[in-house]
Amino acid sequence: MPYAIDETHDPNLKSWVESANDPKSDFPIQNLPWVEFTGPKWGEGLGVRIGNQILDLHGLLGTGLVDESIFQQSEIERSTFGVWAIASLNQDTRSKLRTRLVELLSSEDSGVQDAVRQQLEPADKCQIVISPIGDYTDFYASLYHATNVGSMFRPDNPLLPNYKHIPIGYHGRASSIVASGTPIKRPVGQQAPAEEGGTPSFGPCKLLDYEMEMGVIVGRGNELGEPVSIEDAEDHMLGMCILNDWSARDLQKWEYVPLGPFLAKNFASTVSPYIVTMEALAPFRCAAQERDAGDPQPLAYMDSDANRKAGGIDIKVEVYLASAKMREQGIEPVHLSTGNFKDMYWTLAQMLTHHTVNGCNLQPGDLLGSGTISGTTRDARGSMLELTWDGDPFAEPPVLVPGTQRTPIVLPTGEERKFIADGDEVIMKAYCEREGYRRIGFGECRGIIEPAREV
Fold first, then answer.
1. How many angstroms from the chain centroid is the CA of residue 172?
2. Which of 61, 118, 137, 147 is most solvent-facing, going by the fewest CB within 10 Å?
3. What topology is assigned to 7-129 in CATH?
């Protein structure tokens, strides 16, 4: 893997930005995720989050403490300088920039501290924004999620024949990707007829769901017709964020045959605004999920010794829910599930390599979604579709029940949920922990559901 563990990951490293030294902070000096923002001092900016502050890179370049010439390598015009300008830099240059930022934020030189401090803005005084996503592809990379969903509707054949041979994905809608905190309007569309041969109904979605995913932001692109090899795939990744792929399950059931998701998925997807770099994630790499003895091995173009040994990433993911009534009564969000990204059947490198093997050209700032992250236990299921379902294909023996047999989630107010109701807020969190290293986090990914438009 191209991302080495170095002095920037030292758990004993402290910053003179005191809030970054709080062990509960998502943003210690070992993290430094990229973010775009509008702040009270300088207006629109590109920066890194450090503790409860954002360091403005535009202003920092003006101090002479960072060599601006490194951005001459960027494929993006200086006039549109932002996260995607960072994305298009090569991995070696990005690593050098990370090292320099760590040096500045840990410096004991009072003059350096004063100069850098002038470029800090309190995060709670800034409006966090996201750059427009170029293209968006969503995968279906969790074997456990695919098995759960398949078992609901095809108990005798939950996985389709291609699942263990290729990373399954579909092209999503980039224009409807929104930043954390943006309200989500309940979608409207067609639902399946009550009986075969009948007329479909039309109206607001009745089975609204979330999907707990992680997204990877593409860094350097590739030329049209030039695939990215499995050995080079990670050099084309900038970093990761949380992704909530909102899903209208009743619309999806009616429309997904024969071409897959359409209106059920393209009305909105929510991302967390902080891009945690692949460099910051280096200490949390792990082996790719080990395949069962009877499973096919990946074809050669998606297989490498490095990917088998360190293609996975140990990221804990959590989902919480707060109804409108809970918020009115001051009740804390209720925890729904905890999963782990290391449980994915396909690695990020395999997804990116497969995406380009036909010559597809990825570009800086494209987003690849992992698909729902689920585990083998009920409390690790990453969607309401799975969480409230009473079946368990991983039990001994498996418990396979119809997809409609569900036990609702009971909230502290006594309200019940099988799917998401108007006024509900879904909160997703993700973080990495490992002995010998600082905990790093991704912030939060939030969204409140608003009633559908009148039809």
1. 14
2. 118
3. SH3 type barrels. (2.30.30)
Instruction: Select which of 145, 236, 354, 355 is catalytic.
Output: 145
What is the number of other CB atoms lying within 10 angstroms of the CB of residue 61? 17
Superfamily name with CATH number, domain 136-450: Fumarylacetoacetase-like, C-terminal domain (3.90.850.10)
- Residue-wise pLDDT for 17-62, tens only, equals 999 999 999 999 999 999 999 988 767 888 999 999 999 988 898 8
pLDDT tens for 247-261 read: 999 999 999 999 989
**This prediction's pTM:** 0.96
